[in-house]
Design goal:
Strand content: 25-35%
Oligomer: single chain
Number of helices: 7
Distance between the termini: 35 Å
Helix content: 25-40%
Length: 244
């Protein structure tokens, strides 16, 4: 069994931070043939600084119409790829309320992970949404199921607010001034191929790198809560990469 709720919460957030897609379950609203029944939909997701899922949805979609009537929803994020028996792999069910959000930084984070969405993101019926998490149901494998309350499921505001403010400046600086460090992160630390790397997103637990069509995750050794912490962690990680 999982002994640590903190470890399980971190593992669940990492599934969300690494995910491209999820299954969204909403409640069919009154006036529809399947009123009261749950509807499952495939959606693409990104993550906020605290680990909450970000979505970009069309107002015309049935799941979005359901959300406007009843914001209670769930997401299933599957981390079982590569497991011969998927039941042995990790996954997380996320319970919460999905609400539209106007902050343009969420839109940027979503599009940095899903650049092809820029083809339709400007259409009038598309908006960004964020899930306000109530609970995680994390399953690490057989006999490893655990409910995680929202106090542990997402990072508290004090842990991410400064990083959120500094994120765009840090990304610009790293991409313009330190392309070699980004290449070392990708090729030496992660062992991936590729010449041109960009840092596309940053949060207190790590950062995302893009090379071509692929996105890869690098975690910080410990939580970073401000720009100075982040600078020290990035230096520490590149030093580690150079030794490989």
């Amino acid at each position: 069994m999982i002994n640590s709720a903190e470890f399980a919460a971190f593992a669940a957030r990492q599934l969300v931070r690494n995910a491209y897609k999820a299954v969204l379950c909403t409640n069919m609203h009154p006036g529809k043939d399947a009123q009261g029944w749950p509807l499952g939909s495939l959606v693409t997701i990104a993550s906020a600084w605290d680990g909450s899922p970000i979505l970009m949805l069309s107002n015309l979609a049935q799941h979005t119409q359901n959300i406007t009537q009843d914001s209670r929803s769930s997401l299933i994020v599957d981390g079982t790829e590569g497991f011969l028996n998927p039941q042995e792999g990790p996954r997380v069910g996320i319970v919460g309320r999905i609400r539209s959000i106007k902050d343009k930084r969420f839109r940027r984070r979503f599009l940095s992970r899903h650049p092809r969405a820029s083809l339709y993101a400007s259409f009038g019926d598309f908006q960004c949404y964020k899930m306000e998490i109530e609970k995680y149901h994390y399953v690490g494998g057989f006999a490893q199921a655990l409910w995680i309350e929202k106090q542990k499921a997402v990072l508290p505001r004090k842990d991410w607010v400064n990083i959120a403010e500094a994120e765009e400046d840090i990304l610009e600086h790293m991409n313009l001034a330190h392309p070699e460090a980004l290449r070392l992160y990708g090729t030496k630390l992660l062992g991936k191929r590729g010449k041109y790397w960009n840092m596309i997103a940053l949060d207190p637990e790590g950062f995302d790198l893009r090379c071509g069509n692929s996105v890869h995750r690098v975690n910080f050794p410990s939580l970073v809560k401000n720009e100075n912490d982040c600078r020290k962690a990035l230096i520490q990680i590149v030093a580690k990469a150079r030794k490989k």
